[in-house]
Fold this sequence. Notes:
With 344 residues, this protein is of the alpha/beta class. It has two domains: 7-211, Rossmann fold, CATH 3.40.50.1170; 219-334, Rossmann fold, CATH 3.40.50.40. 27% of the residues lie in helices and 23% in strands. The chain has helices at residues 33-39, 66-79, 95-105, 129-141, 230-237, 259-270, 292-299, 310-322, 327-334, and strands at 7-14, 19-21, 28-30, 49-59, 85-89, 106-107, 113-116, 143-144, 147-148, 153-157, 160-163, 168-169, 178-179, 187-189, 193-195, 210-211, 219-223, 244-249, 274-279, 303-304. The strands form six sheets. It has an eight-stranded mixed beta sheet with strand order 4-1-5-7-10-11-14-15, sandwiched between helices. Aspartic acid is lined by residues 14-16, 60-62, 91-93, 117, 119.
Amino acid sequence: MTGKNTSILLIYTGGTIGMVNHPETGALQPVDFKAISNQVPELKRFGYALHAIAFDPPLDSSNVNPEVWLKIAEIIKKNYSLYDGFVVLHGTDTMAFSASALSFILENLSKPVIFTGSQLPIGTLRTDGKENLISAIEIAAAKIDGKALIPEVCIYFENALFRGNRTTKYNAEHFNAFTSENYPPLAETGVYIKYNTAAIMKPDGRKKLSVQMKLDPRIVILKLFPGINRSVVEAVLNIPGTKAVVLETFGSGNAPSDKWFTSCIKAAVKRGLLVLNITQCHGGSVEMEKYETGMELMKAGVVSGYDMTTEAAIAKLMYLFGKAYSLAEVKKHLKRSLRGEITL
Ligand code: ASP
């Protein structure tokens, strides 16, 4: 139930939802927030106090980086006590990265932070943006016994609300652009909004929001493919200053068993590089002990990323190294579910 006194802050960062075609080239480019709200007069029909903060200029989400995540975090921090919930309008391309990052940055979150956007600009006739925006606001405002129903960072898209750090963009043209293969939706919308209360996080209401304003971006991804050669692997593992490598492996965490490959990984681990095993599959988990090819990685000192998405892995590593933890502490936290990002 929501009261008349509900207040929601919209944070418009950019994305297709607020884009128009360039008059000459026809390419999509962002416009300001006023142009968006003019397209959705329905916003006025909510009984809530609805305010907006817009990035200037708005960003295509391909230009989003850790600084932008911290900027969003800063806005939420400053306005945390003033609003019941937050809706972040964001491009879909990197939305899963941003939602993952914010889930870690915002420690002890007890209010909703709902990311949404659209595949078609809000000014187009068949836009998916209106429904996404309106439902995201309604979800951000939802309460039970005076407390937020969704005290998490989520992505709302098409007809589902997903935990942000479980989500991946998997389709560039379907309205149903996101998937969360390893965790059920927190809500599904149709005629009714059906909340999956058992799947929603229960925050410790006594703890205050704390915002981790330092991230360490010295992380790389090494995606395996049949035929990957030694010079590529060596080049990536030897990038100076790198703290961790997300090793995107096959199936349940497997990699070629060539001796050169294993010894490259072993040497990197010995030098102090953290190698985190994340499967290339959208669903399922890393189980290095299942096959001999995975076992070799485990013996080489590779750490399991369990069923974490690549997006969440990148964000979690930047967050943990941002805290200036020792390697042993980072490894300890990787084995824990900090924000529901892994199934243990
Ligand atoms: N390129 C756009 C962005 O991510 C795509 C979108 O919003 O759907 O900003």
